[in-house]
Amino acid sequence: MGRSVAAVAAGFLFVLAGLMASWTAMWFVNPDALPGPAEEDGSPAAPPETLLLLVLLTFLSGLVGGYVSALLAGRREIRHGLVLAALVLAALTLTAFLAQADQVPPWYQFALPFAGGSSSVLGSFLRAWQSRRPPTG
Question: Helix, strand, coil: what percent of the chain each, to 5?
Answer without folding.
Answer: 80, 0, 20
